[in-house]
Specification:
The protein has five helices and 28 strands. The chain is of the alpha+beta class and 434 residues long. A four-stranded antiparallel beta sheet has the order 1-28-27-26. Strands 2-3-4-5 form a four-stranded antiparallel beta sheet, with no helix packed on it. Strand 15 and strand 16 form a beta hairpin. The longest helix is centred in the first third of the chain and has 28 residues. The chain is globular. The protein starts with a helix and ends in a 22-residue tail after the last helix.
Amino acid sequence: MANEPEQELLTLQASRRKKKKPKQDAYLAGVSDRKLKGQLKHTEKLYKQSNKAAAHINQWLAPAEAGFVEAEGIEETWQIQQQQIVGAAEQGAARKAFDLALPDLGPYRCAYSRAGRHMVLGGAKGHLAVLEWASGHLTCEVQVRETTRDVTFLHNELFFAAAQKKYVYIYDKRGLEVHCLRSHVAPEVLEFLPHHFLLASIGEQGVLHYQDTSTGQIVATHRTRLGPCDAMRENPHNALLCCGHANGTVTMWTPNITTPVVKMLGHRGAVKALAVDPTGHQLVTAGVDRQVKVWDVRTFKPLHAYFANSPATSLDISQRGLLAVGQGRRLQLWRDCLASKAAAPYLTHMLPLGGISSLRFCPYEDVLSVGTAGGVSSVLVPGAGEPNFDSFVANPYASIKERREQEVAQLLDKLQPDTIMLDPEAVGKVRLRF
C-alpha cells in the first residue's frame, strides 16, 4: 500500500491531467459580434506569422559573429595587404575603399553622422566638405579661408560644427554659416553629445564649454587649469567627457561639477589621443612616452599597455571593439586587445597620403576613414562595424519624412545636463535615510 505522500502526489497528477488547457482564442469568448471576432482572429494570425518570419530571418540577418579576415596555414592576418582585401571583396564593398588626394589643404579631420551615411571633412587651411561617401555625392563644399582644427556633425547630417581659428561656427547642409559661437574661444577639439544636444569644446586656454544646440544657451564653462588640451572624447555609457592633458593626466568632466569627477595620471608626458569603447567600460590612451594604455573605467586601473616605436597620434574604437592606432603614416588595427592583451595586430596598412591626423570608424560599416596630411583615405576593415542597425537609434536608409520624425523624437527624448554623472545607474534610485 502506498504511503500518504505518494498518494497525494498521484492525486495531484491526476487532477492536473483532468484540467483542460485554455484555448488560444479564449479571450474572444466575450465578443458577440462575429465580424469583430473574425477580424481579431485574423489579426492574431498575422502577428504569429510575422513573429515566426522575423525569428527565421533573424538567424540570417543577425549573425552572432562578425566576418573577420582569417589566415591560412602559417600566414598571419597582419601580413594581408589592403589591396588583397579590396580585390577579394565584392564590387559594392570594394568601392568603399578610396584615397581622396588633397595635398594643398591638409592635414584633414573627418567625422561621420550617427547613421554613417554622411562624412564631413575639415582641412587645416579652411576646406570644409560634406559628402555621401558611399556614393561619392558631394553635398556641399566651402572654403572659409581660416585655420580649421576640428569638425563634427550635430544631431543629424543637416548641421555640422567647425572649430576655426578664433570661434566655433555652425554650418548647414548647403555650406552656409548659421551661427557663430563666440563663447568658444580658440577651440581645438569638438564633441557632440547626441542624447543631451550638447556641443562641447576645449582648446588652447584649457576651458571646457558646454552649449545646448536646441536652445543656444551656455550650460557650463569649466576651467581645467591644466593647460592646452587637444584630445577629448565622450564616454557613451555615462556621457562624461574624457580629456587628455599636456602633463600626462586624464580627466573626466560633467557639466554639473566645476572640478573633474575623475583625475588620473596616465602617461609620463603629454596625452596625444584617447578613445572609449562603445560599452564605456574601457578607455584607451596614447602619450608621447610611446605607450598605448588600456584602462578599466569601472576601477580606474590600467589593464595592460602596448609599446610602440613612435608615439601614437590618433586612436579610435569600432562598434565591434577593434582598436585603430595611427603612428605617422603607419596604421595598425588590433582585435580582441581591450579585455586581454593581444600578441600581434589584426591588420596593418601604410598610408600613401602622408601622416595620420585623425581616425574614425564608420557606424554600421566595415570602413575606417583616415585623415592625413595629404587628404582622406577610406580603408576596409572586415568585422569592424555592427551589421544590424536599430532604426530607432540611427537609420542609414531613412527618408526625409522619417528623418523629420526622428528629429522630433530626439528632442522629446532629450536628457537634461543634470543627468550626466559618473554612475548613470544612480538616476531614479531612492536614497534611504535612517
